[in-house]
Structure formats: C-alpha cells, structure tokens
Please model this.
Amino acid sequence: MTQCSYSCPGAQMIIYSLKQSDEGHWSVCRLGFSLFSNLRLGPAITLAREVARDEHARSGRPVCVEMSGPESTIRLAQYARPQPEPFVAAA
Model:
C-alpha cells in the first residue's frame, strides 16, 4: 500500500495529491490515504482532476490537485467558486 503525504495550505481547501510508488506507479490520495493506485501518470492526473471536480460540484468547497515536485509542490488543478465582490454603496 502506498503511503501518501498531504499538506493543507487553507483549512477549508480539500486536497487530492499524486504520489509515486517505488515501482514507478502513481496513486491518487486524500488525507494520506490512497484512493486509487497502480496508475500511470497521465491517467492518475486525469482521475484526480475528475474526482476533485466532482467533489467541488457536490460540496461547493474549494478543491485542488497537487503533485510534489523536486523543489516544490505543483498545483495541477484548482476548483473554487469566485469570492463575491463586496458591495460598495454609491455616495
């Protein structure tokens, strides 16, 4: 079983991450648990984006897909509703 790490830059952001196994396969993870495993990179990215998009559509919460790069985390997708602009009354 692939052990996945996760980060949480925003308390309300749901994060799906991609993690590579020692064998070179990829897993789609959430909260440190592997949801899907033994994938090639392309299908893993596609599946993670699909799951994240569905999560956002169902919950309305912001969701992103991330992959650890050699020096930093790479955000592959982000689904969030725009924040409403504050109403300013005309003087």
About this structure: Residues 39 and 56 are 23 Å apart (CA to CA).
